[in-house]
Design goal:
Layout (H helix, E strand, L loop, with lengths): L2 H23 L6 H15 L18 H11 L3 H4 L1 H25 L5 H17 L8 H14 L4 H12 L6 H10 L3 H21 L8 H7 L11 H8 L4 E5 L4 E5 L3 H28 L4 H18 L13 H10 L5 H20 L1 H5 L3 H26 L8
Antiparallel strand pairs: 1-2
Helix pairs in contact: 1-5, 1-6, 2-3, 3-5, 5-7, 6-15, 6-16, 7-8, 7-15, 8-9, 8-10, 9-10, 9-13, 9-14, 12-18, 13-14, 14-15, 14-18, 16-18
Length: about 400
């Protein structure tokens, strides 16, 4: 192992250890979902109780339960020494770190090229800046799956697409990378058939497990949500709350803080159609480029980033872990087209840092709509819109081969 590779490994694993520890000391319980939600779900499924997504409707696709149950199984030998909840937290952090390390090894290998070293340093820095939320959420397991799938798309498209599809059945967003690959790749039919085949296989297994009634319940659970505090569209309402024209309340149904104000139900209702329209427009724009011969390495990274960013910007939910989604498209952008990755990478690192300042560091003050956290969240949300514009501009600037 070369000295450069050794330094990369030390930095990457050290950041994971630091991030895992910070989850125990930062305010606002950044690892709260893991012990308050994931662990009870896993325990119930393993002990013959309710199985989320199978016997009950669920906010996540059904495969999300698999890593939760795996973490529970891994935690059992630790219960006697640190307690059930502490053991589950340790097991979860280890599970995420191991999966990240496997994909990190795939990324850098033994002699990484300069683009892959840059991608590795970016991934490490993004995790450090985003903080514990990058580790203690189900999204943390989909990021390495998305990176691995994206890296394999060129030489092993079937395996890469299968990984992305599995990721989408854990948390929906990796499906945006499948769509980007279908549009940008020359072998789009193979990718499309692989995604369809993997989805069909997953659905067949879920049917056998008895999930027929709640198979797609996660879609309805998302559309029925209100406008969450951190969502981009909620930003004007936060300022209205400071003026006394709106308010922040807690939803016990979905365990999150939401906005209550004038026409907020209308805003919440139109965001999903807007999401569909924006993603469709981006897809059509990229499809025109692909049809005219745009290279995969130039088109796929900005398209993947634009689609993922659109899912965040137009989302009625603004959970801080959504920023972790942006890591995968940028790691892939560094690998495929390092020259043009610098500006969007800088924006994503800034977004990660701002998000950590908001949650968990000033979240309680945000719920009181104090000035500093509202300013931080406003800056973060504006920067998300800027990132979306940068991604779309990069798609527009993808060159078309000159035809003789």
């Amino acid at each position: 192992m070369s000295r450069r590779v050794a330094i990369l490994w030390v930095a990457f694993l050290s950041v994971h250890a630091l991030t895992a520890w910070l989850g125990w000391v930062y305010p606002s319980q950044p690892m709260g979902d893991v012990v308050l939600v994931y662990e009870p779900w896993a325990t119930s499924a393993l002990t013959g109780g309710t199985v989320m997504g199978i016997t009950e409707p669920w906010v996540y696709p059904q495969l999300a339960l698999a890593p939760m149950m795996l973490a529970k199984a891994l935690s059992l030998p630790l219960v006697a020494s640190v307690g059930a909840l502490g053991a589950y937290l340790v097991a979860w952090a280890v599970l995420v770190t191991v999966l990240d390390a496997v994909v990190f090894g795939m990324l850098i290998g033994r002699r990484p090229s300069a683009p892959r070293r840059a991608a590795a340093w970016f991934w490490t820095a993004a995790l450090l800046l985003l903080g514990p939320i990058a580790l203690y959420r189900i999204d943390a397991l989909t990021v390495p799956l998305a990176i691995a799938g994206g890296l394999l798309l060129v030489r092993h498209p079937v395996v890469g697409t299968a990984l992305l599809t599995v990721g989408a059945w854990i948390k929906i967003w990796p499906g945006a990378l499948v769509l980007a690959a279908v549009v940008a790749a020359r072998g789009r039919l193979r990718i499309l058939l692989t995604a369809a085949g993997a989805t069909a296989a997953i659905i067949a297994v879920l049917f056998l497990l008895g999930a027929d009634r709640h198979l797609f319940a996660f879609l309805g659970q998302q559309t029925g949500r209100g406008l969450q505090v951190e969502a981009v569209a909620a930003t004007p309402y936060l300022w209205a709350t400071r003026a006394g024209a709106a308010s922040v309340g807690y939803s016990f149904e979905i365990l999150t803080f939401q906005i209550d104000g004038p026409a907020v139900d209308v805003v919440s209702a139109v965001l999903t159609p807007i999401m569909v329209l924006v993603t469709a427009a981006i897809t059509v724009l990229a499809a025109v480029k692909a049809a005219r011969g745009a290279a995969f390495a130039r088109l796929f990274p900005p398209l993947a980033l634009s689609l993922v960013t659109a899912l965040i910007v137009t989302n009625k939910v603004g959970s801080p872990q959504f920023q972790a989604w942006l890591i995968a498209p940028l790691v892939l952008w560094w690998v495929y087209d390092r020259t043009r990755a610098r500006i969007p990478a800088g924006l994503v690192l800034a977004l990660c840092g701002l998000t950590c300042l908001i949650y968990p560091l000033t979240y309680d003050a945000l719920l009181r709509t104090e000035l500093v956290p509202v300013l931080l969240l406003t800056a973060r949300n504006v920067l998300l819109i800027v990132l979306l514009a940068v991604g779309i501009r990069s798609i527009i600037r993808v060159p078309i081969p000159t035809r003789r």
